[in-house]
Amino acid sequence: MKSCVEYHLLRPRAMTERRDAMPVAYIGLGILEWHGLQNPLGLDAIKSHGIACHLAEKFGGVVMPPMYWGDHRSDIAELDFDGSFPIPFAEPENDFDHTVPICEHYGVEKERLVKDGEHSGSYGGWEFWEKLLVRAMFQTEAMGFKSIVLIPGHFHQIDASKRAIERYNGEGGKCRTLVLSEFAFENVGKDLVGDHAASFETSLMLALCPELVDISELDANMAVPNIGVIGLDPRKHASKEVGEKILAKFAETAEAFILQK
């Protein structure tokens, strides 16, 4: 039986034993967002939590519950993917407004999501989420951990995590911290470039929890563009093997920080 590494599933003795052996806590971060017809809506935190568990099983430490809520709802695929993509996502196959068919699949009007984004803006955009993460880090520190690895699963959470660390340090936080994302090793090979619901993220899901992925939901005709899938086409490039290679790269990238007690 695989050993449990998740804080919320551990009994006190098991948690303290793991913490004392390796006082590193991992926090997976994500949002609820469209990730193609083939992937679950919670992919970001499922992905980052799975990476956290992989690291804890390999190096030790404890995985805290993933954090989904409190993000800035204007920075989501359902609103962002309107065709105005920046490089490197500005490819011809993406040159249409993805937000219209995405909302049609949900059965909701885009205006409702726009209004919700405006409401989250009234909470300060990402500021509300950053404060929530700061509290999570202090709560983790209070349980005796010495280091915290943040794993943002959503692009906008990378900079927001760094700002949260600045707040945490400024308020007297004592833990060593690391923000670990796929963009830390994006230049090592085309299969290891972060994307949105394309080969990279779909491959990770195939390695971590294949039961949640169904490639057959995508059109078998390769001439038909995917909706809200930005990057190497998962119909051709996604595989469990690629996902396992990505997991190995995450471990290689984080190893020095984790093992420095």
Q: Counting H and I runs of at least 4 residues, what is the number of helices? A: 10
What can be said about the biggest beta sheet?
4 strands, parallel
Structural class: alpha/beta
> Helical percent range?
40-55%
Strand content: 5-15%
Roughly what is the average pLDDT, rounded to an integer?
Answer: 94
Q: Identify the overall geometry.
A: globular
Q: Which H/E pattern describes the elements?
A: HEHEHHHHEHEHHH
The Cα radius of gyration reads: 19 Å
Q: pLDDT under 50 segments (min length 5)?
A: none
The strand line-up of the biggest sheet is 2-1-3-4
**Strand elements, count:** 4
Distance between the termini: 28 Å
How does this structure look, described?
Helix 7 (156-170) links the parallel strand 3 (147-152) and strand 4. The protein is α/β, with parallel strands linked by helices and 261 residues long. The protein starts with 11 loop residues before the first helix and ends with a helix. The model has no long low-confidence stretch (mean pLDDT 94). It has helices at 12-21, 43-59, 77-80, 99-106, 110-121, 126-142, 156-170, 199-208, 234-237, 240-259, and strands at residues 24-29, 62-67, 147-152, 176-179. Strands 2-1-3-4 form a four-stranded parallel beta sheet, sandwiched between helices. Helix 2 crosses helix 10 (240-259).
